């Protein structure tokens, strides 16, 4: 996925950071300007009967390729950058959701692509990575759910690095438990951060990689949300996509796939037809289901 290296900010509940200064916020906004000098969130989206999509983390890489592909399929697309939406800061997520809902009455497609991979590995890196890649994404998605139209599609851009094979057997069972709910998921993620802080995460069965655990958590949220929406008459499908190893800032220049190739499965999931039997609660690569 396309990394969104978030600045320090206020995080959710136990995942808290100092607030950005006004000058730092201004600098982040300046960096997120398009070549034409327009903040991507503020690009006009003309009202029409065409479906509306929101793609986060869409200023470059896979997110940009997803946004361009959806536009080519006739959707109206709102793209965000970090200056518009900083998933590490609850107030940024809340403000973005509030402004988006004021501007747009309904939403057809949500592609949660924005995320982060930070250098190093310690409790602070673990906490920040979980906040951006899981808790911030949860907060945004939940805030927009009420406006999803019938047949809506939610796509989590995940990673094969989030396969539960990276965990000890008891943790695999805990994350895959079909009765796992949001509180249980947050507790597992808090435990990871606490174990890293104590230096006992390896003994507890976690890898020394916060990004991997965050993607395990994002995949778990995908399953939880799909179960929650299973009885919703709007038939909203929720799925996770692994784009593969892609030539992005995170993937590096030696990766075998272009951003356009990495975007194919997320776009396919975003355009699933609104009909009974459409997959929901699955994990896909190359338009095929893969194991969690």
> The biggest beta sheet, please?
7 strands, mixed
- The assigned structural class equals alpha/beta
Overall radius of gyration: 18 Å
Q: Point out poorly predicted stretches.
A: 1-44
The geometry reads as globular
Number of strands: 7
CATH architecture descriptor text: 3-Layer(aba) Sandwich
Q: What average pLDDT do the residues reach?
A: 85
Number of helices: 9
User: Element order, helices and strands?
Assistant: HEHEHEHEHHHHEHEE
Count of discrete domains = 1
CATH class: Alpha Beta
Q: What is the distance, rounded to the nearest whole angstrom, between the alpha carbons of the first and last residues? A: 17 Å
How helix-rich are the residues, as a percent range?
40-55%
Task: Identify the CATH homologous superfamily.
Answer: NAD(P)-binding Rossmann-like Domain
**Which sequence of strands runs across the widest sheet?**
2-1-3-4-5-6-7
Oligomeric state of the chains present here: single chain
CATH-defined fold name: Rossmann fold
């Amino acid at each position: 996925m396309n990394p969104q290296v978030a600045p320090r900010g206020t995080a959710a509940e136990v995942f808290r950071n100092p607030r950005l200064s006004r000058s730092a916020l201004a600098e982040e906004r300046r960096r997120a300007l398009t070549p034409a000098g327009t903040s991507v969130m503020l690009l006009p989206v003309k009202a029409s009967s065409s479906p509306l999509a929101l793609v986060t983390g869409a200023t470059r890489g896979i997110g940009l390729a997803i946004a361009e592909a959806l536009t080519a399929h006739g959707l109206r697309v709102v793209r965000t950058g970090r200056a518009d939406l900083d998933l590490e800061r609850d107030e940024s997520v809340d403000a973005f959701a509030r402004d988006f809902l004021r501007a747009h009455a309904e939403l057809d497609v949500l592609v949660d692509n924005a995320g982060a991979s930070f250098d190093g590995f310690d409790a602070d890196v673990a906490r920040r990575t979980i906040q951006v890649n899981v808790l911030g994404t949860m907060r945004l998605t939940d805030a927009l759910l009420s406006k999803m139209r019938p047949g809506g599609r939610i796509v989590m851009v995940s990673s094969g690095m989030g396969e539960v094979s990276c965990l000890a057997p008891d943790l695999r069972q805990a994350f895959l438990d079909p009765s796992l709910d949001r509180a249980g998921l947050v507790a597992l993620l808090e435990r990871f951060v606490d174990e890293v802080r104590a230096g006992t995460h390896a003994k507890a069965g976690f890898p020394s990689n916060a990004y991997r655990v965050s993607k395990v958590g994002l995949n778990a949220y995908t399953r939880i949300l799909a179960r929650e929406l299973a009885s919703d008459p709007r038939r909203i499908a929720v799925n996770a996509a692994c784009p593969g190893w892609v030539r992005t800032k995170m993937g590096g220049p030696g990766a075998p796939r272009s951003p356009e190739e990495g975007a194919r499965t997320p776009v396919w999931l975003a355009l699933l037809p609104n009909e009974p039997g459409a997959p929901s609660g699955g994990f896909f690569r190359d338009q095929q289901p893969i194991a969690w």
